[in-house]
Design goal:
By secondary structure, the chain is of the alpha/beta class. The chain folds into four domains: 101 residues, Rossmann fold (3-Layer(aba) Sandwich), CATH 3.40.50; 69 residues, 2-Layer Sandwich (Dna Ligase, domain 1); 248 residues, ATP-grasp fold, B domain (D-amino Acid Aminotransferase, Chain A, domain 1), CATH 3.30.470; 330 residues, TIM Barrel, CATH 3.20.20.70. It is built from 29 helices and 30 strands. The protein has an eight-stranded antiparallel beta sheet, with helices on both faces. Strands 23-24-25-26-27-28-29-30 form an eight-stranded parallel barrel, surrounded by eight helices. Helix 22 links the parallel strand 26 and strand 27. The N and C termini lie far apart (78 Å). GO terms for molecular function: ATP binding; metal ion binding; pyruvate carboxylase activity. One of its GO terms (cellular component) is cytoplasm. Its EC number is 6.4.1.1.
């Protein structure tokens, strides 16, 4: 190396390790960066030096902190920065900053990032190079009418795509004129959220094509070569799952034409360093779609069939060498040969049977594989590692090579069977089905392969007998034989009750706004808040969902005054209604009205919220209208401010009387939509997004002040939450209040998505009473949104003081504690509400 003696890798995980290893082999000193969440990450220890980056920032933002990365590069005195893939790899500002600071950017020139970072500009370059492109708009489209006009001219289906898109985001298929408006709006909205730019363009949709990409290397001496192609057609939602090199289902003539086109394009722009030109192939025709101006995840299989180290080639090229120098070792184009076939499978911590939802937790068993023609590129794949929700779910890239494609397939099957990963769910059973499928082996598949092949999802559940046996033995060793009860002595007087100074004043809150300005004033106040507002459900729904509503008023009264002092910024406290009456009368021998009125005196500053079952009130059958009216009137007089009114079957007629009664009482009407199913699942035709939008419009017409989304089973997934809130926001002009249960473990993720979509209020609970079948953690959400524009107003220290009390109280209800031991994604199948889960258990025990 003439100029590069020390390299900083501006990335993490598998690709960071890949680059660090390449540097070490070339005797280049290395520098790694790591976020706070990656303190124990493996890539940190593969470098000669490692520095914390983005201190105090969110996990993703840490690796996007250009100023701090440049600062570290200067401190470490590096000559070059390799960006890997993802993060800043295609960020033109980062490349320009490196150029300005005199640091070599191991990648293309900034002009290439500019022309290929925008798909419209990339298409223009393809046209200049006389390469076949898909018919499309000549630039962005301004409105749905332009999309419709294009469809009328070129026919359907067509694609609306984000100009700055990638990974399938900001992309919508339009099957006909009726879909145009929704596709245009959704693509623009998603593009804005993902890339900060809602610009979209339109092009003809090539139906069921193959996705073929050509690996390119170009140096500063004018040399451009291709390393043949990869077949990336096994995709899910435009994200690659399995890749093959070379494609075993195209003719030699077509291969030559595609590769020549890729080289022609890159020569036309004097491309520098590694890049990938991507095409859609239908029959013997191919169309340019985009260029990825960086190293790709799947570069490994190209290395296996050509023998050329792409990452080391990047470093030599960045250093100024000619790729044909003897030291670099890349032959002339005519001498580059395909040697055998290779397959890459991305092993991820995803659950294929749960819509590929990422799983988190500790890996307690990790047994990898190996052998002739096997390559493993791992990031944090090892026993004991904790898989967090912060980053990509990739554990390891498994690649196999054989002289024939069939040999590579056999090796891949053997290696997938040998892999043992326990503690988190993985996609290994799904990958096995893919590589064993006759269509995959024959090459007779396209980009719709996964979506159109349901048998890929038919595989046995992992039994994990060995790990279960070891856990049983360790449990018996530590805790004794099951059935022998051992319980520590609990001292009730040891409760950590917060001490509030006798002269401390209670800050005014939402209760004062309601009393002064009425429900309309509350609505206007909510709309004016930038921060997301919180409802604390600890006093009602949280202990229903965990402790079967068995918490006595005594334990609630002890914490009420501290809550008024320490949590004055809550939108409301949910503290009454529903199962409160049932358990108060049947099990606690208490008067629920006394609880309400006593708490009202102790907490004068925050609105109280109750759950009202429409025509059922707080019972389990329909009551006469006059009973509903009187109940609401008395509840309002005794202290309830916000009435969340719902019907479990979304029967709007059954909610009308309650809504009218609450309005007559001068209190806040919060009519609720009960969420079920999955709006992103096209097979569930009834409960789609239009169903909920229509219901929202009817509830607003009936007079609701606030629209609640009551997800009482915890079925609302993050992507669905973003879409539902976004579309409801566009449909009705009232605040939206989201309630969910954390049964699946996705609660905070769901709330974060909803907050991004503009939800006004969310239900949370004190951390000790959160999670599982309860609501997500109040303080957890606060930190999850920290430093964001919509971070909730909460004193985390004071919240923790309250939490200490609930930590202690919960011990005394151990016999009624039915909390789950871990997230249960099975809720997406059985769809059982959190409160029902705990209460049915206790009722069953009582019967027994």
């Amino acid at each position: 190396m003439n100029n590069i003696k020390k390299v900083l890798v501006a990335n993490r995980g598998e690709i960071a390790i890949r680059v660090l290893r390449a540097c070490t082999e070339l005797n280049i000193k290395t520098v790694a960066i790591y976020s706070q969440e990656d303190t124990a990450a493996f890539h940190r220890y593969k470098a000669d030096e490692a520095y914390l980056v983005g201190e105090g920032k969110k996990p993703i933002d840490a690796y996007l902190d250009i100023d701090n990365i440049i600062e570290i590069a200067k401190i470490a005195n590096v000559d070059a920065i390799h960006p890997g893939y993802g993060f800043l790899s295609e960020n033109i500002d980062f490349a320009k900053r490196c150029e300005k600071e005199g640091i070599i950017f191991v990648g293309p020139k900034s002009k290439h990032l500019d022309m290929f970072g925008d798909k419209i500009k990339a298409k223009e370059q393809a046209l200049l190079a006389d390469i076949p492109v898909i018919p499309g708009s000549n630039g962005p489209v301004a409105n749905a009418e332009e999309v419709a006009a294009f469809g009328e001219k070129h026919g359907y289906p067509l694609m609306v795509k984000a100009s700055l898109g990638g990974g399938g985001r900001g992309m919508r298929v339009v099957q006909g004129p009726a879909d145009v408006k929704d596709a245009f709006e959704r693509a623009g909205s998603e593009a804005k959220a993902a890339f900060g730019n809602d610009e979209v363009y339109v092009e003809k949709c090539v139906v069921n094509p193959k996705h073929i990409e050509v690996q390119i290397l170009g140096d500063s001496h004018g040399n451009i070569v291709h390393l043949f192609e990869r077949d990336c057609s096994v995709q899910r939602r435009h994200q690659k799952v399995v890749e093959v090199a070379p494609c075993n289902a195209i003719t030699s003539d077509l291969r030559e034409r595609i590769c020549d086109a890729a080289v022609k394009l890159m020569k036309n722009v004097d491309y520098l360093n590694a890049g990938t030109v991507e095409f859609l192939v239908a029959g013997e025709e191919f169309y340019f779609i985009e260029v990825n101006p960086r190293v790709q995840v799947e570069h490994t299989i190209t290395e296996m069939i050509t023998g050329i180290d792409i990452v080391q080639s990047q470093l030599f090229i960045a250093d100024g060498s000619s790729m044909h120098d003897q030291l670099v070792g890349i032959p002339q184009q005519e001498d580059i040969r395909i040697n055998g076939s290779a397959i890459q499978c991305r092993i991820t911590t995803e659950d294929p049977l749960n819509n590929f939802m990422p799983d988190t937790g500790r890996i307690n068993t990790y047994r990898s594989t190996g052998g002739f023609g096997v390559r493993l590129d791992a990031g944090n794949g090892f026993q004991g590692t904790v898989v967090t929700p912060f980053y990509d779910s990739l554990l390891v890239k498994l690649c196999t090579w054989g002289m024939t494609f069939e040999q590579a397939c056999r090796k891949m099957i053997r290696n997938l069977i040998e892999f043992r990963i326990r503690g988190v769910k993985t996609n290994i059973p799904f990958l096995l089905n893919v590589v064993q499928h006759p269509d995959f082996i024959s090459g007779n598949y396209n980009t719709s392969f996964i979506d159109s092949t349901p048998e890929l999802f038919d595989f046995p559940k992992v039994r994990d007998r060995g790990t279960k046996t070891l856990r049983y033995i360790s449990n018996v060793t530590v805790n004794g034989f099951p059935g022998i009860k051992h319980r520590e002595k609990l001292v009730y007087d040891d409760l950590r009750i917060p001490k509030i100074p006798f002269d401390a004043k209670i800050e005014p809150g939402t209760k004062q706004i309601l009393d002064a300005k009425g429900p309309a004033g509350i609505v206007e106040w909510v709309k004016a808040q930038q921060e997301v507002l919180l409802t604390d459900t600890t006093l009602r729904d949280a202990h229903q969902s965990l402790l079967a509503t068995r918490v006595r008023s005594k334990d609630i009264f002890q914490i009420a005054d501290p809550m008024a002092h320490l949590l004055p910024n809550m939108f409301s406290f949910e503290m009454w209604g529903g199962a409160t009456f049932d358990t108060a009368y049947r099990f606690l021998n208490e008067d629920p009205w006394v609880r309400l009125e006593t708490l009202r005196k102790q907490i004068p500053n925050v609105m109280f919220q109750m759950l009202l079952r429409g025509a059922n009130a707080v019972g389990y059958k329909n009551y006469p209208d006059n009973v509903i009216r009187e109940f609401v009137k008395q509840s309002a007089q005794s202290g309830v401010d916000v009435f969340r009114i719902f019907d479990s079957l979304n029967w709007l007629k059954g909610m009308e009387v309650s809504i009218e009664a609450v309005r007559d009482a001068g209190k806040v009407v919060e009519a609720a939509i009960c969420y079920t199913g999955d709006i992103e699942d096209a097979t569930r035709t009834k409960y789609n997004v239009d169903y909920y939008k229509d219901m929202a419009k009817e509830l607003v017409a009936q007079g609701t002040d606030i629209l609640a989304i009551k997800d009482m089973a915890g079925l609302l997934k993050p992507q669905a939450a973003y879409r539902l809130v976004s579309e409801l926001k566009d449909t009705v002009d009232v605040p939206i209040h989201l309630h969910t249960h954390d049964t699946s473990g996705n609660g905070i993720y769901t709330y974060a998505a909803a907050v991004s979509a503009g939800v006004d209020i969310v239900d949370v609970s004190s951390s000790a009473m959160s999670g599982a079948t309860s609501q997500p953690s109040m303080t957890g959400l606060y930190y999850g949104l920290e430093n964001g524009k919509r971070q909730a107003i909460l004193n985390a220290h004071d919240s923790q003081i309250i939490n200490h009390y609930w930590e202690d109280v919960r011990k005394y209800y151990k016999d009624f504690d039915n909390a789950l031991n871990s997230p249960q994604t099975e809720v997406y199948t059985h769809e059982m509400p959190g409160g029902q889960y705990t209460n049915l258990q206790q009722q069953a025990k009582a019967v027994a």
